């Protein structure tokens, strides 16, 4: 027995030592991939010495003897810090995520292949200007140079994720950067998702369903079923459901994910320091690492500083010594879905304007990690590629024997958007910037500009041309065999939708464009109105007032809806006894009556308001939409406002059709509030004063590859309570479904405020940190600053960059002594 015990102790000690050795080994190989920022390399591909000066926040300042060398070093710096992210973004655009993630990524791969993101990117390479092609080639060589250094120096495969997701890192190609820009464009627009929702609403609630998503004054759409007389349409009575958020973000970006931004500027005469001010905060899905990366590069045209996306060799939002710019995804209808009829008995033909026509087809193979290869047939019509019914809920709206084709401006093989973005960096004033942006195709952008002469707002990108008698004006899927529904081509955005020297010297953008066609979504006007109020309420602005506006957390939707929804509820009942539902309602209404709409994480009022509006919208639509109501993952404030104002009889939504009595909007509002308070009190107790918005509303910045792994997720994911909401200027968009629908999953992953009076006082921030390495101190060192609405400074002065240097990477041409 004593011998057995001794051997048991020895075995236990041995297992412990083995476990410790294994942890040390894993740790050693993981930290091997941390780059040394204070090192020198001899590298082929550059014509002279290059310096990458890293500041305290790990921001690279890149200096070289030629533009080509600078773009080379930018590629190397991106790869040093974000190599795994770059390769995943490339895979997402190529439709090759399943090779590392397994079968769960096949739907995303199938959609990317069918949209032709990578194929169209390769086709558009030759359309770029020669100088842009040279920049893309130099950038690719810089990425590859770092991959070679990783291999030569056994630097832990370049990123620790590669140990868990085995991947042979293919060399970077110029078309890879174009493909990531295509993926960004596909992710920014949500038009095809909206078309599917409109069709489903029309089928489930033919009489009033469109009111949920219509903008004020928008022409009524025909009933979707009437577009296909005699066709067999399955009633979409079951909700399509929503995928897990981490699955959606497997590639950091995904088509139809959605993006937004605020961009605003005032001219010099409206500022205290006598120079124009501009602020910008592109809003995408929050990930760890974040999508954005701060950079400063010195080109022959001068220094440029701001935010980049790893994989794209352009500063998308930033400034040079004379011009500042910011981007806002434009809400234009740049996508149309067409319903194509397949010839009965011959799946290779579809109906066209001239009769039955052959699909253009090709076959591609999807490789799957730990699985068999899958060969898919890609079909295309004259309207665009065919999308199977498994994508975006298309199966719920397709008549039997029909398929859906997608027309998108981003499919253009002559897309010169990269040329436009690199030209924007070199522009010296608003006029040359607008000229460069005239080459933009996709994504469509509202670009805010500022220079010493004033400010401007330019709509850049192509718009589809539709016939005046188009059956749905592009708002819903339409029969693809009718010539009247087909695109007549695409055209650059008209100059009439841009403003070069606006009256009053101010511009503001949230993406809403009232005159750009049917893509305009009137609900976003709440945020735009609030932004304009913040700008117009002061005659003279400073950098600090712009920072305050960019971080404004007052909800214009709460201010608009609460007086309407609660009009007949404020202080109308006799005081109720403590502990009763009636008293809980009265206390909640008393709090809301004195609330200014600030969505502070420390207050209970935002929690009560958000839960009330969500319960209210669900009660208004549930009886008519049924399970389709489960798929509404956002609040439609314009709809609620029209209902409670009774616009065009919209108050009919308040009556529950299945009940005998005729319910009033006041009754529905009270019932919704009671239901919301019951749910919240069950989770947080009956003391309303102790509730905090931050207990429900926190930003979860998830690592797309490691975020679902039980132990590792605590290291790589970032979880922070945040203020703001869906409609605040400091936008913190909700998930909209699941156990906590108020989880903040979208926000301003990059913020910048640019002061042309004192350019070096301009400030910047990203949502996580510069490094994508979970063990780096720069992985999340900006997260707390970002959450608090704080910034870091970045200067174009080389001396200041060197003074703040924490490391200098020196690149020397190979072969020199």
Total of DSSP H or I helical runs spanning 4+ residues = 23
Instruction: Going across the biggest sheet, name each strand in turn.
Output: 1-31-2-3-7-8-9-10-18-19
Major sheet characteristics:
10 strands, mixed
What name is given to the CATH topology of the domain at 556-596 and 604-691? Penicillin amidase (Acylase) alpha subunit, N-terminal domain
Q: What structural class do helix, strand and pairing data support?
A: alpha+beta
Q: Please identify, by name, the CATH architecture of the domain at 556-596 and 604-691.
A: Orthogonal Bundle
What's the CATH class of the domain at 556-596 and 604-691, please? Answer: Mainly Alpha
- Contiguous low-pLDDT stretches (5 residues minimum) are 18-29, 516-522
How many β-strand stretches?
Answer: 31
Which radius of gyration do the C-alpha atoms yield? 27 Å
> Any idea what the shape is?
globular
Report the average pLDDT across residues.
91
- Ends apart, CA distance between termini: 71 Å
Strand content: 15-25%
Query: How much helix is in the residues?
Result: 25-40%
Cofactor: Ca(2+)
Protein name: Penicillin acylase
GO molecular function: hydrolase activity, acting on carbon-nitrogen (but not peptide) bonds, in linear amides; metal ion binding
Transmembrane segments: 7-30
């Amino acid at each position: 027995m004593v011998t057995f015990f001794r051997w048991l102790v020895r075995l236990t000690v041995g297992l412990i030592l083995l476990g410790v050795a294994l942890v040390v080994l894993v740790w050693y190989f993981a930290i091997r991939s941390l780059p040394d920022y204070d090192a020198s390399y001899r590298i082929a591909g550059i014509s002279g010495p290059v310096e990458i000066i890293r500041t305290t926040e790990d921001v690279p300042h890149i200096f070289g003897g030629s533009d080509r060398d600078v773009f080379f070093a930018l590629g190397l710096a991106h790869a040093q810090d974000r190599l795994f992210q770059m390769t995943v973004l490339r895979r997402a655009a190529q439709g090759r995520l399943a090779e590392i993630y397994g079968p769960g990524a096949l739907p995303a791969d199938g959609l990317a292949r069918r949209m032709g993101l990578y194929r169209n990117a390769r086709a558009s390479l030759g359309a770029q200007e020669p100088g842009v092609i040279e920049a893309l080639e130099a950038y690719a060589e810089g990425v590859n140079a770092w991959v070679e250094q990783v291999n030569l120096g056994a630097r832990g495969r370049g990123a620790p994720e590669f140990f868990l997701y085995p991947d042979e890192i293919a060399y970077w190609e110029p078309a890879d950067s174009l493909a990531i820009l295509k993926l960004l464009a596909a992710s920014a627009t949500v038009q095809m998702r909206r078309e599917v929702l409109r069709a489903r609403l029309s089928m489930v609630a033919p009489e009033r369903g469109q009111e949920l998503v219509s903008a004020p004054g928008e022409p009524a759409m025909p009933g979707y079923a009437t577009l296909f007389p005699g066709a067999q349409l399955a009633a979409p009575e079951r909700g399509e459901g929503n995928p897990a958020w981490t699955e959606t973000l497997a590639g950091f970006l995904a088509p139809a994910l959605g993006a937004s931004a605020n961009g605003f500027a005032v001219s010099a005469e409206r500022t205290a320091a006598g120079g124009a001010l501009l602020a910008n905060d592109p809003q995408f899905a929050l990930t760890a690492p974040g999508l954005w990366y701060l950079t400063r590069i010195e080109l022959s045209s001068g220094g440029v500083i701001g935010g980049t996306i790893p994989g794209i060799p352009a500063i998308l939002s930033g400034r040079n010594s004379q011009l500042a710019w910011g981007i806002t995804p434009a809400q234009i209808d740049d996508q149309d879905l067409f319903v194509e009829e397949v010839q009965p008995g011959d799946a290779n033909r579809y109906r066209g304007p001239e009769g039955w026509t052959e699909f253009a087809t090709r076959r591609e193979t999807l490789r799957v990690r730990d699985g068999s290869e899958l060969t898919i047939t890609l079909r295309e019509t004259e309207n665009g590629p065919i999308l199977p019914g498994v994508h975006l809920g298309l199966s719920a709206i397709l008549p039997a024997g029909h398929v859906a084709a997608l027309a998108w401006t981003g499919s253009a093989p002559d897309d010169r958007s990269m040329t436009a973005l690199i030209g924007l960096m070199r522009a010296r004033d608003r006029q040359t910037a607008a000229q460069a942006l005239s080459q933009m195709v996709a994504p469509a952008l509202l670009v805010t500009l500022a220079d010493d002469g004033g400010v401007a707002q330019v709509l850049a990108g192509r718009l589809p041309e539709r016939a005046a008698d188009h059956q749905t004006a592009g708002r819903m899927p339409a029969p693809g065999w009718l010539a009247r529904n087909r695109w007549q081509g695409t055209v650059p955005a008209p100059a009439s939708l841009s403003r070069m020297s606006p009256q009053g010297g101010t511009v503001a953008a949230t993406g809403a464009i009232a005159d750009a066609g049917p893509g305009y979504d009137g609900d976003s006007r709440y945020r735009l109105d609030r932004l304009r109020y913040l700008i117009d309420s002061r005659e003279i602005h400073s950098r600090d007032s712009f920072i305050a506006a960019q971080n404004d957390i007052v909800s214009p939707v709460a201010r608009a809806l609460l007086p309407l929804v609660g009009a007949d509820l404020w202080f109308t009942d006799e005081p109720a006894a403590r502990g009763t539902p009636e008293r809980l309602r009265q206390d909640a209404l008393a709090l809301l009556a004195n609330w200014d709409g600030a969505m502070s994480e420390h207050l209970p009022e935002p929690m009560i308001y958000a839960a009330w509006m969500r319960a209210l919208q669900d009660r208004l639509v549930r009886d008519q939409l049924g399970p389709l109501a489960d798929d509404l993952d956002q609040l439609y404030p314009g709809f609620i406002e029209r209902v409670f104002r009774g616009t065009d009889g919209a108050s009919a939504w308040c009556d529950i059709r299945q009940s005998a009595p005729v319910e009033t909007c006041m009754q529905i509002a009270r019932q919704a509030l009671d239901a919301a308070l019951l749910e919240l009190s069950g989770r947080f107790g009956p003391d309303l004063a102790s509730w905090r918005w931050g207990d429900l509303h926190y930003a979860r910045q998830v690592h797309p590859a490691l975020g679902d792994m039980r132990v590792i997720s605590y290291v790589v994911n970032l979880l922070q309570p945040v203020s703001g909401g869906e409609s605040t200027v400091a936008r913190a968009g909700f998930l909209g479904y699941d156990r906590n629908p108020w989880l903040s999953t979208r926000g301003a992953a990059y913020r910048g405020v640019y002061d042309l009076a004192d350019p070096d006082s301009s400030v910047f921030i990203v949502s996580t940190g510069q490094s994508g390495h979970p063990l780096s101190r720069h992985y999340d060192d900006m997260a707390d600053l970002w959450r608090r609405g704080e910034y870091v400074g970045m200067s174009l002065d080389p001396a200041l960059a060197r003074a703040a240097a924490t490391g200098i990477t020196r690149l020397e041409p190979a072969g020199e002594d």
